[in-house]
Amino acid sequence: MTKYIFVTGGVTSSLGKGIISASLAKLLQARGYRVTIQKFDPYINIDPGTLNPYEHGECYVTEDGAETDLDLGHYERFLNTPTSKANNITTGRIYQNVINREREGAFLGKTVQVVPHITDEIKRNMRILGETGDYDIVITEIGGTVGDIESLPFVEAVRQFKWEAGPNNALVIHLTLIPFLAAAGELKTKPTQHSVKMLLEYGIQPDILVCRTEHHINADIRKKIALFCNVNINAVVESMDASTIYDVPLLMLKEKLDQTVLSKLKLSHKNEPNLDNWKDFLGRLKNPTSEVRIGLVGKYVELPDAYKSIIEAFIHAGAKNECKVRVQYIPSEQLTPENAVEKLRGLHGVLVAPGFGERGFEGKIEAIRYVRENNIPFFGICLGMQCSVVEFGRNVLNLKDASSTEMNPDTPHPVIAMMEEQKTIVNKGGTMRLGAYPCDLKKGSKAALAYGKTHISERHRHRYEFNNSYLKDYEAAGLTPSGINPDNGLVEVVELKNHPFFVGAQFHPELKSTVANPHPLFINFVAASLAYARKN
Ligand code: GLN
User: Fold this and answer.
1) Which helix (H) or strand (E) holds 409?
2) Is the separation of the CB atoms in 358 and 407 below 8 Å?
3) Residues contributing to the annotated binding site for L-glutamine
4) Closest CA relative to residue 404, chosen from 462, 460, 333, 461
5) Which of 97, 303, 362, 399 is found 20 to 30 A from 3 (Cα to Cα)?
6) Catalytic positions (predicted)?
């Protein structure tokens, strides 16, 4: 029978529920359990696809094409197992399902209410992955902070779920903050007590408290929290700020979070967790033998969460190369033909980021012209790849005013354009090519060499495509279409001949980079940047 763990948060947001959930899952997985993590978000959007990255960080895309919360990226990076649309549910989705059923007449004239109809639908969704039989343990992270109006139906659903599951089948981990008051020189437990009190008001006694803190919490503080919050002392878990999120599983291991969880769920903990590969990764990450500076040219540079998966992919690839990757954010809006040299000076590689809309587009083109002409390693992702096609069209093929029809619908040379069959779909989100698609790589290409194979599958999130009527001209001039979708002939990878590393990918390789499997294109891009750094 599947066991369920719920993770709630109190006191404040941004305590890192996602990392704690992923770290616990990693420890359980390392003991041989089959684990998945799902996130329930209390906002009304049906999914995060329409959310501004400034507000909500990156939109993470799953194999089956769901646009999801960026925490799912952490789940995949830690566990190295794919998530799906079932792993991220919002209030909007829950209400949409209930309202659709109401319109179908499924409630037989009854009044449709938050309790029981919304809470029933939440519980049904909480069980979906558990009922596949694929998992021993399902961890459900509840977004938001306990006490928020929006979270209430989820918290009530957790209460009911736990009661229905019976003892030892479900437990609640509550993540709180133990602030340090510098003036008093003390760690304060009161916010935690209040937060637990609020959970108790909703009928939930948390089983385990994970306490975020900047200083060690000593035995006295642990005792105090245990007494006032009605938990065992070994269920008070310290979660210190860490220098990297990848330390957190080991910190939780030290606090015996996994053992406490397994005891409460009456599961065996005789297998010690096997974390050899994880520790090997951490060893490389923390002991780099070299360093590179890579420019990340994008428009959401003020909020690094907007490029979360790219940053993490660099961490994985850097560790693999035993090389510290210093990512320097470069706002594309500020790049002009006049200042590109100055702004990009000293970089050993440039990644042009994905994105939507016109803002910063011309700056990205300038960055690409500079790295192409100066043999600096270049990696373009999605919009970044499209920009490399536009740049090459304008400056090498002399296609005046070549562009993407997203930026200039009237361009005389629509080298990036929307495919005919997409044009009929009008809903926002509807026209997008989303999720995993196959791709065949040209033998001997840089991409094929990186992957070590020619059939790959990668995830997409875009509307526009390379316009194949220009394919021959590009190929003849040296920008090779080295990755093609075998089903529809769309260009998925372009790369430049006679350049140390110039690769553009229409898909999002960063979404598939994990600790166990750093992405080959990132590994080779970092290696090329390192080679460039050594020569220059
Ligand atoms: N805006 C581009 C498109 O829709 C690229 C999207 C992206 O970079 N994810 O095709």
Assistant:
1) none
2) yes
3) 54, 355, 383-386, 406, 463
4) 462
5) 97
6) 382, 508, 510
